[in-house]
């Protein structure tokens, strides 16, 4: 499937949802590309998973910001590959550095640099420990097995939409509760 076809399919998937993330964050190794950066040479020509580039183009066309959160111990190779693949301008933030823990620090930095709340983010990664820790921050997080693809995108947007709806309902319930509490308090004063 060519990049243009995938892009059009991704645009259709995105078009199915009214609530969209403000920022989509991708891991690199085994999420956007099918290898570990530290196992290849800078001289090699990298490639993305087959549907990744079309999905990136679709998100860009829809005006959804994108970022990278990678724990790569070879950030120089990762950045070289991003340049070689001509995808660097697509990302508003790139947090690529070695870390022995999960990616919560990466997300704190992304939040600080973009100002986008965690609950307005969607994250794709191939490691469950990253999914678990970042989810606790309020980020909708999707575990991918064979890289980001249209199925993962659909799943991510579905879960994001459900989380956003749930959050909005909770907010509305809280506002009603607060209004009722305030109005009942005023009656007691009279």
Automatic annotation (TrEMBL):
Coiled coil: none
Compositionally biased residues, Polar residues: 172-184
Listed InterPro entries: HAD-like_sf, HAD_sf, HAD_SF_ppase_IIIC, MDP-1_euk, MDP_1_eu_arc
Chain intervals for the UniProt region annotation (Disordered): 161-190
Protein name per Swiss-Prot or TrEMBL: Magnesium-dependent phosphatase 1
UniProt lineage: Eukaryota, Viridiplantae, Streptophyta, Embryophyta, Tracheophyta
